[in-house]
Amino acid sequence: MADTSAAVLTIAGSDPSGGAGMQADLKTFAALQVYGMSVLTLATDCTTEGVTDLQLLTPEFVAHQFRRVTADIAPAAIKTGMLFSAEIIEQVDALLSAIDHDRIIIDPVMTTRRGERLLSDDAEAAMRALVGRARIVTPSLPEAGRLVQRSISSSAEMIAAAKQIHRELGARHVVITDGHGTTDTAADCWFDGEAIRWLEADRLPFAVHGAGDAFSAAATAHLGMGYDVERALDGAKAFVTEAIRNATPRGQGNRPLAYSLAR
Ligand code: PXL
User: Fold this and answer.
1) What is the pTM of this model?
2) Which residue, by CA, sits nearest to atom 5 of ligand 1?
3) 127, 152, 185, 262: least buried by Cβ within 10 Å?
């Protein structure tokens, strides 16, 4: 029986355009009708065209928010989004280690959607360590490449990278999302430690903003409701596919998703 009153938490950065980041996570939580909470890590100047600048909160204030909010309301699942600096990533790692939660989803925000690096070498190393806390880690194709330190372009390379992220970095479930790939279907590669499964949907003929965040947030909402990982990932894929299908153009860049009620 799904726990429809579940409270779920995102630790993420602000996207003032409302399409990605903390805003995408909270809209996804609301659409799936769980109770959303958020610990802010940084503010960006993001629009549908991307990010050009950001400002970080201190790791101490990230920790302060996290400790206060989780002591007040116990999260049923926790997601991380943009953490950016080695110091914030290490702080979040310490906070998650202290509460030993088994429904942690790490969305390792490490590249732009075009695959350009966002993180320093130190921050990337800290992110590889944080991934070990994940019940589910959800890198995009270029982010998976940063995690394994080589570029990935074929299905065979996706499979090898998913297995390596499980084995060497310690994430229990690895889902490499292929939103910007070149095949006809938008197929995400899921490795659960034993078998590979592909999560498939039609690839839609326009670029969107925030799809990776919404997928990961939807998986978090489902885990928080008490669903197992398979149901959580199938539910997340269905949710994000619908939100992409309904996305309408706004602004000068990629279409933000349409977060309509989905449960
Ligand atoms: O989609 C990744 C992402 C995460 N978090 C913030 C963002 C973005 C992308 O624009 O702005 C705050």
Assistant:
1) 0.96
2) 21
3) 185
